Amino acid sequence: MTAASKAVNPEANQIRSKVVIVGEYVRAEENSTGYFWEGAISHLRSNGVNVEVVSYTRPMSARVRANAFLRLATKTVVALGLTLGILKASRRGDVVFSGTNPEILLPILALVCRLRGMRLCVLVHDVFPENLVAAGLLRRGSPAMRVLGAIYRRVYASFDKAIVIGRDMRELVDQKAGRQIAYPVHNWVDSDDVKAADRLSSGILEKLGWEDRVVFQFFGNMGRLQDIDTLLRAMDLVTTDKAAFLFAGSGVMRSAAEQACEGRDNRHVMEIDHGYSRSAMLSSCDVALVCLDQRMLGLGVPSKAYFSLAADRPILAIMDENAEVARLVTEERIGWHVRAGDPIALAAAIDRICTEEPSIGSGRCRALSKSRLSADLALEQVRRQLERLME
Question: Which of 152, 176, 220, 254 could form a disulfide with 304 if both were Cys (CB 3.0 to 4.6 A apart)?
Answer without folding.
Answer: 220
